[in-house]
Amino acid sequence: MKRLVAVISILLVSGCASYHPEPIAPSGTAQAFEARTLDSRGLREFIQKNTGRRIKPWPPKSWDFRRLELAAAYYSPALDVMRAKWGVARAAVITAGGIPNPAMSLLGQHHSSTPGGISPWTWGISLDIPVETAGKRGYRIRRAKHLSAAARLNIAETAWQVRSGLRKSLLDFYAAAERERYLLGQLSVQGEIAKLFEERLAAGESSQFEVTQSLLALNKMRLMVAENQKKKAEARGALATALGLQVKALDGIRISFGLFERTPAAIDLKDIRKKALLGRADILSALQEYEASQSALQLEIAKQYPDVHLGPGYEWDQGDNKWSIGFSFVLPVFNQNQGPIAEARARRKEFAAKFIALQAGVIGQIDRAEAAYAESLKNLQVAGSIVSAEDSRIRAARARFDSGAASRLDLEQAKMELASAKLSRFDAFIAVQQSLGQLEDAVQRPLNLTGPLPNGSITNGVNR
Fold it and tell me: Which of 126, 98, 92 is CA-nearest to residue 323?
């Protein structure tokens, strides 16, 4: 009996896990964050693995959106959280598949009065072996697997949110940087206009009111430039945050804005809409959660049927070997698991309603995004038409100026009108890119952009 107990103890101890502490040092994690850069070896290996191409030289001379997207995925703390949650869900599958352990009881009795030559001790051992019925273990495993699949799809959903946030911050940075050039061009022209008004005032050809108005317009332009520089700095900080980096990590980094240089005049969303409604990560995740609720209902229904407990035993009673067999189960007399079954049914209805509501919300999101994109394209076409009209006007103004029929002030004012029209067209172009980003978010997939811009290319400067 002592040997048997020793053997069982050794087997139990050998199968046990041990605890290893992993403390978190806030100062260490902060230092690790501050040390992040876009030229790390780990990031290079991550990008090469996901693109299947070697990167030479490293770091690259220019960072396009695809590389920035992979950098954001590499450093994203939100994705780390979702991966950890998926790890918990996968561990839950192991828990669900666990088989109940048998219980062992040891018995020892001492008899105060025994015949001579017979041991006064009685030794016994018995087992309680639970046997699950009605497929309960299988239902638990299926539920856990569905929840694990939902957690894995949540990683894809978060990855898209990371991409979406990166695109938005990159577009904001691009818009602020390009808008600064337009505004500086306008500032230069407005400065020339104010100078010409002052010269005309000195020659008695203009009034003080006109000079004051031109100076006010010049100061307004200076404030617009300063405000745009603030937005540019904020957008740069937001871009660093979207990449999971500090702002200083972007110092000396050349960023390509090729993603925003071309956009299609129209997008056929018939097939894309269907794929979105059937394949968006959040929709698939909600569907897995619904399937998990179905497995949970099956499990609660199966619990109506009691598990069986087998109880074999052995007893050595003063030299006599005694063998026994036991059989027990819970009698479902007072309840048949009605409450948990009702809760599981109600929960399944809840998840079904959530899935339908999510799909309906996606349909509305796609409709709104498609309409906004179409309208923004129309606005861009109108803005392009205005630029074309201003181009014609400035050519006429130059011709009149060269012939002496118009003054320098008339020419500069025409330049200012053209500069304002070009800035309005650029703002309309940014609105197109913003609505395109909303459309991509609605269908949760990048839209291939191969068509030219309506009404020519967006260019920098005033007189181009």
Answer: 126
Average pLDDT over residues 42-51: 93
b/e sequence 431-459, b meaning 16+ C-beta within 10 Å: bbbbbbbbbbbbbbeebeeeeebbbeebe
Q: One-letter amino acid identity for 194?
A: A
Residue 125's nearest CA partner among 108, 106, 109 is 106
Q: Is the pLDDT reported for residue 225 higher than 50?
A: yes
The reported pLDDT for the residue numbered 6 is 61
CA distances from 234 to 76, 225, 230, 240, 361 (A): 20, 14, 6, 10, 32
CA distances from 213 to 79, 198, 204, 209, 260 (A): 54, 11, 17, 6, 37
**Which carries the bigger pLDDT value, residue 84 or residue 116?**
84
Query: Can you tell me which residue has the tokens 């994705």?
Result: 79
Confidence of residue 315 (pLDDT cuts 50, 70, 90): confident
Specify the pTM: 0.85
- The answer to whether residues 173 and 239 touch, using CB atoms and an 8 Å cutoff, is yes
Cβ contacts of residue 103 below 8 Å, gap of 6+? 127, 128
Bridge partners of 20? Answer: none
3-state secondary structure of 193: helix
Q: Is the bond into 59 cis (omega within 30 degrees of 0)? A: yes
| H or E segment to which residue 448 belongs | none
Whole-number pLDDT of residue 271: 81
pLDDT of residue 460: 37
Paired sense of beta strands 327-329 and 320-324, if any? unpaired
Domains of the chain: 61-443 (1.20.1600.10)
How is residue 156 written in tokens? 């894809």
Segment 196-200 shows an average pLDDT of: 89
Cα separation, 173 vs 179, whole angstroms:
10
107 DSSP β-pair partners: 124
pLDDT (0 to 100) of residue 458: 37
Parallel, antiparallel, or unpaired for β 121-131 and 320-324? unpaired
Listed range (120-124, 389-393, 398-402, 423-427) with the worst mean pLDDT:
120-124
Neighbouring C-alpha atoms within 13 Å toward the C-beta of 391: 11
Three-point CA angle 174, 180, 182, nearest 5°:
105
The residue to which tokens 């103890």 are assigned: 9
Q: Which residue has the higher pLDDT, 8 or 187?
A: 187
CA distance 116 to 112: 12
